[in-house]
Amino acid sequence: MSVWQEKLPQSDVWVVMATGRLDQTQNMNLEETLNALLDEGHYHLVVDLSQATYINSGGLRCLVSAWRRAKTNQGSLVLCGLNSRLQEIFSMVGFDKVFAIHEDCEAARSRPSSS
Amino acid sequence: MGSEQSLTVPGRYKEIKRICEFIAAGAAQAGFDDEAIFRLELCCDEASTNIIEHAYGEEDTGSIVVSYEISGDDFIIVMRDQGRAFDPALVPPPPTINLDGTSADGSTGQLRIGGLGLHLIRNLMDEVRFSSDSREGNKLVMIKKLEAQTGKEAS
Questions:
Q1: Domains delineated in chain B
Q2: By CA distance, what is A115's nearest residue in B?
């Protein structure tokens, strides 16, 4: 897995892209990236999962923790690009009702605060 | 097939991928499609994580023995460890999360990873059983019906 981050132009919205497997050995990488942005006061985040092939409960917990921190600070954490397998996992634990999830990552980038 | 295949790995997070690959290979041979294999891998991942975190308490404390076999229409996965008894049946379902970021039970702390993982296992497998005794240690049996897979292909 690798994690990339970029700031959207003319906004304080940061996009974090996680690729590959979000498993127990890799979730720390995503968690550190999200926490570093939140620590710096960037509370509007988009997590692009279009290149993520797998997620376990540790990955879900990592996203929920970041979502909570963003929400507590009047921010948002929006997800985009989940494949059907990831969508199934999110639905199974009810996280599809918690997160704003955009199929299209371009839409998430243009409307990042809709959560 | 029908004979039991077994793998023993150290209780370490980076070894979980080996367990998943071992089960994926067996499941593919048994005739499961990619979607079903993904779900079986996830269940083994969650079960292995629980063994390391709850039964052993940390990494490198003991080993994990995983095996699979086909019995009739059942694809049977068994995971064994020698750690503390950890009965999944005693773990409550994960709390519902409210849209304001709190949990429905009022807690605002981190979600219980075990609760979430077991919730996934219970939803993705057809049958889950746990037993523990001082001689054989902990034994988690997870069963997925091959029949459902065949039925899915036919529909």
A1: 5-154 (3.30.565.10)
A2: B99
Average of per-residue pLDDT across A91-101: 91
Candidates B17, B101, B113; nearest CB to A71: B101
Residues of A in contact with B43 (CB under 8 A): none
- Chain A contact for B134, CB < 8 A? no
B85-119 confidence digits (pLDDT tens): 877 677 766 666 666 666 555 444 444 444 888 89
Residues of chain B where predicted confidence (pLDDT) is lower than 50 = 106-114, 154-155
Rounded Cα–Cα distance for residues B43 and B13 (Å): 14
Cα distance between residue B101 and residue A67, in whole Å:
8
- Scan residues 19-38 of B and list those with Cβ closer than 8 Å to A: 35, 38
Domains of chain A by start residue, with CATH: 2-110 (3.30.750.24)
Cβ-proximal residues to B18 (8 Å cutoff; 6+ apart), any chain = B7, B9
Using a CB-CB cut-off of 8 Å, the residues of chain B touching A93 are 94, 116, 119-120
A103 token code pair: 């199929």
Task: Quote ipTM for the complex.
Answer: 0.85
CA dihedral B42, B43, B44, B45 (to 10 degrees): 50
